[in-house]
Design goal:
With 415 residues, this protein is an alpha+beta fold. It has 10 helices and 20 strands. The longest helix is centred in the first third of the chain and has 20 residues. It starts with a strand and ends in a 37-residue tail after the last helix. The strands form 5 sheets. Strands 1, 2, 3, 4, 5, 6 and 7 form a 7-stranded antiparallel β-sheet that branches. The chain has a 5-stranded mixed β-sheet with strand order 14-13-15-16-19, covered by helices on one side. The chain has a 3-stranded antiparallel β-sheet with strand order 8-10-11.
Length: 415
């Protein structure tokens, strides 16, 4: 036994990795805690320190939410960083399935519903986890769940692209969404795709995409190959479950479940088909058109590189937040906060942000975003209570082109 600050800790770690170790400790009041000790060489890295501080901030924001690991304290001592957290008993979902094999459909649904309820709280606090996988989900002895490791999470409320290098890839092979693998901007729907991969693993005992030792090939498979069918691994899978899987794993995020709540509602309906559950109703989409002429907002009228109908902006309310969805309809594209868009591509702009939008990628044709939001807001019914939007396949289209680059950011928290 030894002393670290005001905590008494065991000499033998309960876990270790390349960045440090996890120790079992006790507070002065006798509460058992887990203490994550980060090695000095990582503490000296400014970007890494920022990620640690952000993880602590996110977890403190979620401390009162069930199903999320709790953080109690953080401090620096002798060039080490320490995070004092809840000690979660049990085993990870990956350990459970590696030991027992695939789960029954009902078991998988019950665990998944609990995971989705926890992640619903995460998304409602404008946090995107970005690394949902079986190894980051603990199953407690009482069958409760606990979401771990927010080390690469992102604050969606801070604005699109915040603290993320455009084109970088953060996540775990085989569990990242197509938009994540392609280096595109993401939101909470990327977590929903990753949770579909987790659900697939629970039901089949196999990863949806298996590493072939080539990271680029793995990411290309995620982007281009169809999501595997459960019947290839489980002969008696119910058709209703396959339909749920199809929607959760749709490569077009506009056709996926738009919230964890929607995903969970369908699973609850499957388990209790006689139970009526009121799902969130869709709100009418409120859009404005933008272009050189004949649009709701006419701008850059003397710049012929700007298309007559250059873009549409649609207001959407998802459970993960309120967004203005910019859709490019042009010949010469758009740049939003440094991110290039081509015809058919979309970009989610959280409410309250003021992005730099250059029509036709031309600095002389910057869009007045305040004019756009003012017009959209003027069309929202004063008495209407906007509810989460449920975009149907008919309303969403695949982008005509996707970025063709693949970068890789070394994962701070390895698989």
């Amino acid at each position: 036994m030894r002393q670290i600050g005001r905590y008494t800790v065991d000499d033998t770690p309960i876990g270790s990795g390349g960045m440090g170790q996890v120790l079992r400790g006790w507070t002065p009041q006798g509460q058992i805690v887990a203490i994550k000790e980060i090695l000095p060489e990582f503490c000296a890295d400014v970007e890494f320190r920022f990620r640690i501080q952000r993880e602590v901030e996110f977890l403190r924001r979620l401390n009162d939410k069930p199903g999320i690991v709790k953080v109690y304290d953080s401090f620096e001592l002798n060039n080490h960083l320490y995070i004092v957290m809840e000690l979660v008993e049990g085993q990870t979902l990956e350990q459970l399935i590696s030991t027992l094999g695939r789960l029954t459909v009902n078991q998988a649904c019950k665990y998944m519903i609990r995971i989705l309820e926890a992640m619903q709280s995460v998304h409602e606090h404008m946090v995107v986890h970005r690394d949902m996988k079986p190894g980051n989900i603990m199953i407690r002895p009482d069958d409760g769940v606990c979401i771990l490791d927010f080390g690469v999470a992102r604050d969606q409320g801070a604005g699109s692209g915040s603290h993320t290098v455009v084109g970088s890839i953060i996540g775990t092979d085989g569990y990242m969404s197509p938009e994540q693998a392609n280096g595109m901007d993401i939101d909470h729907r990327s977590d929903i795709y990753s949770l579909a991969c987790v659900f697939f693993y629970m039901l089949s005992g196999h990863h949806a995409y298996i590493s072939k030792g080539n990271d680029v090939q793995m990411m290309m498979d995620i982007v281009n190959k169809p999501f595997p069918r459960l019947k290839d691994y489980v002969s008696d899978i119910p058709s209703e479950i396959q339909k749920i899987m199809d929607r959760a794993s749709d490569k077009n995020m506009m056709r996926r479940y738009q919230s964890c709540r929607e995903f969970g509602l369908d699973l609850k309906q499957y388990i209790n088909p006689g139970t009526h559950i009121d799902a969130p109703t869709a709100t009418s989409e409120i859009s404005v058109s933008i272009g050189r002429e004949g649009c709701d907002i006419c701008t850059a009228t003397d710049n012929y590189r700007v298309s007559r109908h250059h873009a549409d902006v649609t207001f959407k309310v998802f459970t993960g937040g309120r967004y203005y969805v910019y859709r490019d309809c042009s010949s010469n594209g758009t740049t939003i906060d440094g991110t290039p868009l081509k015809r058919g591509m979309t970009y989610n702009i959280p409410e309250g942000c003021n992005p730099v939008i250059l029509l036709a990628n031309d600095t002389s044709s910057r869009l007045d975003w305040s004019e756009v939001t003012a017009m959209v807001n003027s069309r929202i019914p004063a008495s209407g209570d906007t509810k989460p939007s449920d975009t149907s396949p008919a309303q969403a289209e695949e982008p005509e082109e996707k970025p063709g680059f693949f970068g890789r950011l070394k994962k701070m928290f390895g698989r």
